[in-house]
Fold this sequence. Notes:
The protein has eleven helices and six strands. The chain has 239 residues and is of the alpha/beta class.
Amino acid sequence: MNLSCLLCYQASPAPVCHWCEHDIFFFSAKDHGNNLLSFGPVGRHVKHSAYQQLSVLALHTYPITTLIHGFKFQHSLTSGKVLAKWFVGKQQHLAHHTPPLPHTTAQLLLPVPLSSWRLATRHYNQAAVLAKSIGSALNIPICTNWAIRQGMSAQHHLGKAQRLQHAKQVFSLTPQCIDKLVASNPDLKRIAIVDDVITTGVTVNALASLLRARYPQLSISVWAMTFTPPPKSSLLAAG
C-alpha cells in the first residue's frame, strides 16, 4: 500500500512522515516540566483556578494545526488517531523516565462535551474520540455522558472575557454525572478532562469548577493535544 503524509503529502510509511513530525513543537518534561501550569508562558495565560495539572502534547502552530483542523472539520479520524498516539507516547515516557507522580496519573477520562447541534453536523465529538483512543491505550476508563453543552455558537472567535461568560452559560453536569463511578470506586481520586485544543482555559476551568463543587475530593487534571499561544508569546519565537 502506498501511503502519503497527512501534512506534506509525500510518500511515507506512517500517517505523518518523520520530517513533518520533527517540525512540530512538542512540549517536553525536560524543557517545560511535567505540569504546564508551572511553566510561565502557559500557566500565566490559561485560567486554572479549578484544576491542578495541565498536560499538553504540542504548541498549536503549523504543522500540527493541519492535523487538528482535519480532525475537527474534515472528518479525518486518522489525524485524531495520530494525535492520540503521540499523546499516549508522551504519558508513557513520563511514566518511565520521571519519579512517580500520583497526582498526574488519571483514573478516569472525561471528554469535553459537544453541543447536540455540533454533534449532528460533525457526527462525532473529537474530544471523546481522543479520550477513547488514549483510554484504550493506557487502560483508563472514560465517561462521555457526564456533562452537557448547550447552544450552537463556537468559541474560537471570542475574546477571553467573552469565552468566560459563554462557558458559564453553556455547560452543566448531567443529573448522574459520575455519581455511580465515584460510589462504586472509593479509590477514584484523580480524573482528567480531555480536549483537543486549549486556548484560554476557560472552558476546561468552567467544567472543572462544576466537578469540584460536586466532587470536592477529586484531583482534576486537563489533558489537551495543543495549546494556542497568545500573539506575543515567547513560545512562538522558540518554535
